[in-house]
Amino acid sequence: MFKLSHKKIIATSAVAAAVAFAGCLGSNPDASSSSEGSTKYVASHTYDFNGKKVIDGGVYYPVVDGKRGPYYVNEQASRIAYNKGREALPVEIKAWDVDVMYNGPFPKGHGTVGEGEEIYEEKCVACHGDFGSGAANIGIYPALSKGNAYELHETLKNQRLNPDDDGPIRVFGSYWPYPSTAWWYIKTGMPHPHPKSLTNNEVYALVAYMLSINELKVDGEVVEDEDFELNQDNFGKIEMPNVNGFIPNLNGPNGTDNIRKLLNTPHEYGAKTLADGRCMHDCLKEVKVQHITIEQKNFLPPLSEVRDLPKEENGGGAEAKAKATYEASCAMCHDSGAADAPIIGNKAQWAKYIKEGMDTVYKKGIEGVGAMPPKGGTTLSDAEFKSVVDYIVGKSK
Amino acid sequence: MDIKETQNAPVSSENEVELSSRREFFKKSAALSVTAIAGTSLAATNALAEEKGDPNIVEEVPWGTKLGDPVTKNRYGMPSPYEHNVTRRNAQLLASGNWQASIAMCPIQDLYGILTPNGLFFNRDHGGVAHIDPNRYRLMIHGLVEKPIVLTLDQLKKYPSVSRVHFIECPANGGPEWRGPQFNSIQFAKGMMSCAEWTGVYIKDILKDLGLSPKAKWMLAEGSDNSEMGRTVPIDKVLDDAMLVYGQNGEALRPEQGYPVRLLLPGWEGNLCVKWLKRLEFGEEPFYAKEETAKYTALKPSGKAIQHFYPLEVNSIITSPCPEKPWTDLEDGEWVEIEGLAWSGQGTIEGVDISLDGGVNWQKASLKGLVLPKAWTRFSFMHKFKKGQKLLLSSRAYDDAGRIQPTVKEERSVMGVESVYHRNAVATWEVTAEGKVNNVQVIS
Hints:
By secondary structure, chain A is mainly alpha-helical. Chain A has helices at 6-15, 90-96, 113-123, 125-128, 149-153, 172-175, 180-189, 200-213, 255-263, 317-334, 347-354, 358-367, 382-395; strands spanning 63-64, 67-68, 71-72, 86-87, 110-112, 217-218, 221-222, 229-231, 238-239, 246-247, 272-273, 288-290, 299-300. In chain B, the strands form six sheets. A five-stranded mixed beta sheet of chain B has the order 6-5-14-9-10. In chain B, a hairpin with a 5-residue loop joins strand 25 and strand 26.
């Protein structure tokens, strides 16, 4: 049904003058003898709407004879200008259009390093660790700093070819091209449990604090002083060491053409073309095999191809269900003590919670406390959550 | 590079498919059915007395001797409870802190055909799955357009609809294995992808009425979830095949996929296909959202990182056998299908080659079923299993954009081992003498 004979392809392309047609693409060495030759759709390396090369280096499927590739289309549908919805009001656009562009203008506001440190200690440290380090007992949350950004920037050429090698450090200071991203992201996405709760001034203060822990410069001066104030006027003078670390250059009028050029140059990104060859015989002189050295197998739930009834239905009961929920939603913190969570089975740690009374333990767990998100970040009902708490407490006293 | 073992390629001429003559065929199928019967009785050798036969056949089974469920039960149907091990899975290694900024891997070893059931579709979130009230859903389109608009969900659905089968893949699929294999599991080695039929609206059809400025080069797409996930899309893709989708395999998008509306950029990085979509802004300059600076940029050994690395390049993986589905139960001389998935975000799969010796020699596999652009494509290769024979099974796909998968060595030679994203080198399973299947990499 999807077959397009070569004859038909040629006939159609002659009719569709606007279609820059490329027919049999690639140089499949045995295309003529291959049955797959017939599955080809009319495809082109060039768009018909702007005459440019396909931006991602791939092919474009123009509409030919009422079909786009294998799909029939209603061509009339794409010629009509639909007048749907209503005009967006300026006040609505203002409410949602809060992104911050790399080249400004920057939002109105100001905040100091010292103010930022206070907010950080209150709202961020539980996950991101002291001084943004992604502290060792947490580890899995992203670090916001690893030290002097200009020095760490030098690590970006590191390659971990041996187990003991240091890798590149990709944190805000050493890696991000623009600080506008941090402002925008913190404003709309952090703190993780309560995003969109910070004022402009608080966000300026937090970014100022991030500049200080990354030892970044603003207008030539390293940010050290806790009275240093960041605001809409000096934000554009932050000196990010990796601002030129990304290819291609996307800014300015040639941005999209630059990425078009890169993605149409396969060898720039490790891609291979049929023109490089599709070797069929004696392609390797020797076969070197790399096996798994450190196997990762902490999977939830464990891998299984068994077809049987789940444990609950086998009569595992409420305890089995609570255990399964614990493993899926709580173990990540309460098994390891990540984020300083009390560890399951550690009687001393749990005693100080239990002595507050179980009602308090339930309540705090449901509402969230410190780095413990409400209900551990789950959507369990109160009753379900309590049964998991009972399971933990049962194992810890 | 820690090379654990060097081994010579096994020779494998007997693997050519030789079901040539009709007579051969009958001979073989007769032989096969004998083995099949033998196989069944073997499975229960001890329990099964020849004269009594299989109790599942000669005795009544419980589900045949009582009433089943009424049609009023399970108004939204569920899989058989016996299939409960077919689920998405997580690993703490792949979470940035908690299960809200994390990924759930698709069990591709257990899927049939090219469509992923909605409940098994892989899921990557940056601030948890948002639950949007469709009545309060609004989509804003603004920026460099003459007429900025707001649409409700019902209004969006009034545009002419388009349905397309496309895979969505996280560009970090396979990314933990740049420095070598880590997971003895296809679900974890390659499960950051799925494929569905999506229904929605071409953005270009909406733009016709809005007066898009010729100065518009980029489109910001932003979600309304906790993380307000955003990404910048070049206008070329918007005018090509970018869609706003609300349907997934015939029903509404699942919350994990961005209910009620997500952006779909066929063939491009999954994170670009912004979920819980609330806003499209057209601009002259790129937006530099968090997920196109801190993450989703591919660091090269030069210390420079490729940004805006859109397409998922041509790729393939053998799904059967795989570590989860080994060949430990095959009989010597049994014919078995080597099956797998191939896909390309740059076009349509044109062919797949199979190697049994780690990439020394290749043979052409067959494609199977529908072969659609930027969609999963099944391939198949018949193999005569030889007990005790070690194999290094690889697949290598190529597409109509003229791209073919590189070897691990070729890809590493350009990208090094720190780029995290867009790893599409040829993957290899080692089949041991016992028929077990291990994840390995051929690095020569």
